[in-house]
């Protein structure tokens, strides 16, 4: 885990919120437990600007609490999702009581956490039988022009392609209080302005941690590529949400 990359997003919080895709809706349906009459309490952990928080609201989940360490990201979230409980905190130190939520969802953020401390904390705040859901949403490298854009933005295509083609497993620490995990991959397309597709590369941590000069170069290359490959009209960009879930054991082991 690279701390500079982990906290790089706040510098572009507004662009991040505008340009990053929400998770594919079908993934949320798969991740969330069948809810009772009152619906589940869901923790959006490492919530960023609230892309997942808003998707949950759109899916009909009414009780969401968002935890996010970065002030700039949290400010956008609070503005975009008035009425949602937004707390400063980290995955390693979650500011919630024991056994207080039914689901913990982590969107494009698990890889920034300390897995030992985070899984213990998530086990603490989850009610027995509750679900831990990890998801990553990214532009689908199976489409050649997207793969070329990901290359320009220095994204790790080996990982992304493996996930899309072969699925994936998450290794939680051996003493984490969770049953076995399962994964699924979901696909959808999101309409975006061509200019925004190119600008999206500027929200990737692989680009955010470059020098200003290098970032400008990536943006120029991404714009040229998008203009050549898809033109200037809005484009239906293929996205993948890779999702993994495991349920909290009833007792510590
Ligand atoms: C790629 S963004 C994902 C944001 C949001 N979940 C989404 O899907 O758009 C990663 C987020 O994880 C947050 N983050 C980094 N380290 C964290 C930690 N240790 N605990 C909680 N959040 C963390 C960052 O501040 C950032 O907002």
From TrEMBL:
Residues 43-132 form the Methyltransferase type domain. GO terms for biological process: methylation. GO terms for molecular function: methyltransferase activity. PROSITE patterns: RRNA_A_DIMETH. Keywords: Methyltransferase, Transferase. Pfam families: Methyltransf_11. Belongs to the methyltransferase superfamily. This is Class I SAM-dependent methyltransferase. It comes from Actinomycetospora lemnae. The lineage of its organism: Bacteria, Bacillati, Actinomycetota, Actinomycetes, Pseudonocardiales.
């Amino acid at each position: 885990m690279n701390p500079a990359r982990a906290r790089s997003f706040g510098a572009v919080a507004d662009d991040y919120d505008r340009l990053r895709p929400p998770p594919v809706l079908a993934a949320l349906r798969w991740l969330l437990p069948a809810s009772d009459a009152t619906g589940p309490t869901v923790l959006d952990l490492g919530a960023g600007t609230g892309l997942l928080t808003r998707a949950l609201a759109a899916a009909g989940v009414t009780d969401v609490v968002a935890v996010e360490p970065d002030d700039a990201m949290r400010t956008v979230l609070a503005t975009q999702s008035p009425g949602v409980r937004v707390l400063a905190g980290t995955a390693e130190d979650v500011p919630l009581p024991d056994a207080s939520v039914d689901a913990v969802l982590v969107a494009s953020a698990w890889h920034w956490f300390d897995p030992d401390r985070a899984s213990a904390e998530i086990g603490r705040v989850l009610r027995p039988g509750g679900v831990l859901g990890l998801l990553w949403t990214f532009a689908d490298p199976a489409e050649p022009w997207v793969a070329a854009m990901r290359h320009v933005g220095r994204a790790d295509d080996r990982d992304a392609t493996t996930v899309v083609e072969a699925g994936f497993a998450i290794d939680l620490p051996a003493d984490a209080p969770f049953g076995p995990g399962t994964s699924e991959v979901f696909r959808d397309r999101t309409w975006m302005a061509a200019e925004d597709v190119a600008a999206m590369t500027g929200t990737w941590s692989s680009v955010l941690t470059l020098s200003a000069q290098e970032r400008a170069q990536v943006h120029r290359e991404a714009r040229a590529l998008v203009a050549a490959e898809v033109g200037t009209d809005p484009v239906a960009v293929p996205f993948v949400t890779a999702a993994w879930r495991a349920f909290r054991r009833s007792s510590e082991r």
